[in-house]
Amino acid sequence: MIGHTPEMGRAYENRAVVYTSAGESVDLSEHFRGQPLVLVMGGPSLLDEDLFALRESGVMTLGVNNSWAVFRPHLWCALDSPGNFLSQGWRDPRIMKFAPVGAYRRRLREKTKSGFRTLSLTAGRAPNTFFYKPASGFVPDTFFSSPVFCTGSHNRQRDATGIRGFRSSFLIALRLAVYLGFRDLYLIGADFRMPGSEEGPQYADGDTHEPRLVKHNNALYRALSRRMRALAPELIRRDVRLTNCTPRSGLEGVSHRPLRDVLEGILNPGPVGFPTAGYHEASGPRKPKEPEE
Fold first, then answer.
1. Which residue in 37, 200, 262, 263 is a FRET match for 61, CA 20 to 30 A apart?
2. Beta strand pairing status for 96-100 and 36-40?
3. How many angstroms separate the CA atoms of 194 and 51, rounded?
4. Quick one: which of 16, 19, 26 has its CA closest to 105?
5. Is 189:40 a contact under the CB 8 Å cutoff?
6. Domain for residue 284, yes or no?
7. SS3 94
């Protein structure tokens, strides 16, 4: 029996449950305790980052929505219907995926030359996929301790900050990151401002929106800035450091630092190429015996 440790106390405060594809509940609290994490959002600035350097850095990454069309992450999450996201990502067993429980039986889609076709494959059958329980009603004080994952608020619901409506996968990504034990978080592709389709790219993956949705998304980004300011005391209390590496981001209240500077301090090269002599010995390399006289 392992005795109580400070880490176990933090895991209890951070408690939540996710479910496997077999329907079994598991607790992944603090699973990646102490590791840094780069959150990969889908804004057009993602294309300006040195993604090769990020991939080679060995640093854990969490992709959101269709950002995996540009960069393959280690972890991934989404909020909307699974058919909105690339089926190739769902099929990739190297990506640990997190989706809402309501997506379990929903079928995936595949884009063809003539349009979209619905697949027999569901999110529940996709490899390396876990499911969380979403909830509405944003309350800063319980955002990181609730066993469900807050998405924001429904259109007719006013949250604790006075904002009505606006749900976002960004909130899921933030909650998931802290739940998994990451404390140093770095945002890329988090433009949090969307131009009209005639003014420039709207997403790194090339997707576009009509003016009505552009207006909605920009209002959502302003709401997220307010919610992030409200979450600031909780981030401090939980020793979570959030840094925005996105140049000219519209997200307010978060410190900025270029990704290249961040990677210099958190490189994790992995084991390939390092010498292994002596590791097979039970207690490391042994001293040779002295010759007998």
1. 200
2. unpaired
3. 22
4. 19
5. yes
6. no
7. coil
Q: Which residues pair with 38 in a beta bridge?
A: 61, 186
The two most distant CA atoms of the chain are separated, in Å, by 92
CATH number of 104's domain: 3.90.1480
61-120 residue pLDDT tens: 999 999 999 999 999 999 999 999 999 999 999 999 999 999 999 999 998 888 899 999
Coil, helix or strand for 194?
A: coil
16, part of any domain: yes
Q: Is 13 helix (H, G, I), strand (E, B) or coil?
A: helix
SS3 of 16-76: the string is CCEECCCCCEECCCCCCCCCEEEEECCCHHHHHCCHHHHHHHCCEEEEEHHHHHCCCCCEE
Q: Per the structure, how many domains does the chain have?
A: 1
Phi and psi of 185, rounded to 5°? -115, 135
CA 180 to chain centre: 10
C-alpha–C-alpha distance, residues 63 and 71, integer Å: 8
Q: Are 79 and 169 within 8 A, CB to CB?
A: yes
- Return the amino acid letter for 47: L
From start to end of the chain, where are the E strands?
Answer: 18-19, 25-26, 36-40, 60-64, 75-77, 96-100, 107-112, 115-122, 129-132, 134-136, 149-152, 184-188, 241-244, 255-256
∠ CA 196-197-203, nearest 5°, is 100
pTM here is 0.89
User: Which tokens is 238 given?
Assistant: 């939980």
